[in-house]
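Subject: design request, 184 residues
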């Protein structure tokens, strides 16, 4: 099993953190892992993306042009990466700020109102964990216990008190993902 993922959005949305947590989770699950971030010089507001590969076999190259799953969090990323999903693959997106919804008919497309769910939970900083939960519902290739361990590894210790809130956000993402378009 090999899963090739692109996560893309604005800087400040937790795109790179989400990828890092997935990568740590894969390592703890004894998988081969590649984590390759890409971002502009802006601290927040510029575009950012990360490629994550989780595999039971050795990974030959971290450089990809086609993905099994794309997690899209802004319009610029939708414009750039919708066409990069492998036929039969999955595209997950938050419709907040999306003006041109995905239109492909050879992939499965899901929506998660991550920004709205995070706001309803009272903390917009958990947005990325809501999105991660949605992904985990569709592709349970890493277990929640390893994601929590990945959170502990990637978050500074002073933020460990927020891990239960992040776990709740993951569970909310699992509950709120819904199909937008499913192939026949």
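Subject: RE: design request

Done. Sequence follows.
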């Amino acid at each position: 099993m090999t899963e090739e993922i692109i996560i893309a959005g604005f800087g400040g949305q937790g795109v790179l953190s989400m990828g890092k947590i997935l990568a740590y989770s894969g390592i703890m699950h004894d998988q081969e892992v590649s984590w390759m971030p890409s971002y502009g010089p802006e601290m927040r507001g510029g575009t950012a993306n990360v490629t994550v590969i989780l595999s039971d076999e050795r990974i030959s190259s971290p450089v990809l042009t086609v993905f099994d799953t794309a997690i899209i969090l802004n319009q610029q990323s939708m414009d750039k990466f919708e066409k990069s999903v492998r036929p039969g693959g999955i595209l997950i997106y938050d419709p907040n700020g999306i003006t041109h919804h995905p239109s492909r008919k050879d992939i499965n497309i899901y929506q998660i109102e991550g920004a709205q769910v995070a706001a309803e939970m009272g903390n917009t900083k958990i947005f990325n964990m809501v999105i991660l939960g949605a992904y985990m519902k569709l592709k349970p290739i890493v277990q929640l216990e390893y994601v929590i361990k990945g959170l502990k590894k990637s978050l500074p210790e002073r933020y460990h008190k927020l891990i239960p809130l992040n776990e709740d956000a993951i569970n909310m993402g699992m509950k709120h993902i819904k199909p937008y378009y499913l192939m026949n």
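The domain at 2-181 is CATH 3.40.920.10 (Pyruvate-ferredoxin Oxidoreductase; domain 3).
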